[in-house]
Amino acid sequence: MSDEPAPSLRPPDVTMAVSDGPAPADVYDVAVIGGGVNGTGVARDLALRGLRVVVFERNDLAFGASGNSSGMIHGGVRYLSQSPHVTEQSCRDSGYIQHIAPHLLFRMPFLMPIKSGLTGRIAIELIDAYFRAYDDYQPLKRGEPHCRLDASDMSRLEPGLVGSLVGGITFDEWGIDGARLCTLNAIDAIEHGASVFTHTTVESVTKNPAAPEGGRYVVEGRDVVSQQRVRAGAHVVVNATGAWSPVTASFGGLPQARVRVRPGKGIHVVLDRRLTNYGILSEAIDGRQIFLEPWQNVSILGTTDDDYYGDLDDVRATSEEVRYLVQGVARVFPSVRTARAIGTYAGVRPTLYTYGKPEDALSREHEIVDHASDAAPGVYSMIGGKLASYRIFSQELSDLVALKDFDVSTPCSTHTRALPGGERVPDALALAEKHGITPVASRRLVYRHGARSLRILERAASRPSEKDVTCPCEPVLEAEVRHVIAHEMARTVHDVARRTRLGYGACGGMRCAARCGQIVAEERGLPPHEGFELARDFGERPATTRLVAMGPEQARQEALTLAHLRASMGVER
Ligand SMILES: Cc1cc2nc3c(=O)[nH]c(=O)nc-3n(C[C@H](O)[C@H](O)[C@H](O)COP(=O)(O)OP(=O)(O)OC[C@H]3O[C@@H](n4cnc5c(N)ncnc54)[C@H](O)[C@@H]3O)c2cc1C
Fold first, then answer.
1. Which of 107, 247, 260, 412 could share a disulfide with 395, CB 3.0–4.6 Å?
2. How far away, in angstroms, is 298 Cα from ligand 1 center?
3. What is the pLDDT of residues 189-227, one digit of tens each?
């Protein structure tokens, strides 16, 4: 930490409303920097143990890797030979995550086709044996044991597979919406006393000369929307900024070498519908494993893993990366070439640093750096890890902080207490009938909100116009849009989309962004033109990220639709 004298603590300038949480205090036990799955996971864990926690997220919750992952709570079968510990941990934590958020997980059986020929015949024996070892871990996450199938079973299960096969292997994984996982952790933290500030970037962490009064550290930053300064005292500071961690460490004057990550960019291509009900593995041109997965109501091709040196706040897929994935998957499942691409997204893995190894061979372990040895006691960095093991990682950090810094021995309860809405999964069809909405809208609502769907539907019952569908592709009811603005910290159309998937369907926001912008403006008391600005900002980003995955015909159609969107909002350019 820098030893520059910090100005004395005064009530912070923090003015942004924190959904349902109490008014922010000026001094916290723990300040968490970063609102990804690890930051929100730690905030929840420590808040449940009775500590006063504040979270600062510079963009939106899940803006980083957590909202741009492949969306799998997988058991890490790939790591079994080199790091069985990672596989065991991922499977065990996956079981806990299913238990605390049953509405948010969906089963994803995978098929691994194996080409015929001598190599294929040998490969299927070896892969079969490998998956027998993986089966030992499957019960931890309620996964079915693998099956070995012959070529005719494979094509009966998935007629879209091509090529001469010796057979294949099945294995069982789970999908999840990573952005909602972060939101639910943040909401639960707030409901247990934490304060969460999104769109608020931390710019410095300094030692407080008046400590212990006012906390050992002063965390300062800025609300990037209002440009207001933010300031808070904290006894403990957790750097949970993923791939940004070394940069964040430098704000506190910590040696960057102690917080080294090897940032690994991964991209995905989104196709407009479920092309199959199975995840399908394939090999890319360089022999890397890639996949097609049915994910919620779309199909996703993923993913790449390349060292990344670019801007972490603006990570985009390139057309080369898109071609690499499409070419690789099309070898076993050619219809991905004719399917309609509706978007791409990209994120950066905060992988533990190693020099000289290919990206794929890097460890997926996680690590806590205790900066006490850097003369910054009470400062910690969380690096590495997986969505699938975020809970255990958060628990490890929270166990350490609670005992070492606060002498609190309250045990962790994040594996037994349901996340908000996870207490019970309501019957979506019964809700649809009772509330007069379509079964699809009801199922999607229950998927995202579990038992809390009832709150949204009760709201709509007293204001029937809120049963209108704002986003027809997903579909998202107006009541849900208003709910996430009022109770889930959504401040922009992008934020609403991350929480509801509004605009993530085939129309890319063309049919819903403008209306959503209006609703955001109404709910936040903004002038209507600001609502239009938010809508335009949302409409343009997906248009540019989609462009790299489009053929010329689709690109022309897109340009026309975008011009229409701009014209309808009175924007001349
Ligand atoms: C392409 C890809 C696919 C993946 N697939 C899977 C998968 O299927 N399953 C799985 O288990 N794992 C997967 N992972 C890994 C997993 O997503 C990450 O390990 C995990 O999400 C990391 O979470 P995090 O909270 O540490 O970081 P992040 O989610 O990146 O969060 C860090 C946050 O810190 C914020 N921040 C940065 N600087 C500041 C600052 N100064 N002030 C305030 N906030 C700041 C950022 O805005 C960001 O939101 C994947 C990762 C990628 C990139």
1. 412
2. 22
3. 999 999 999 999 999 999 998 888 889 999 999 999 889
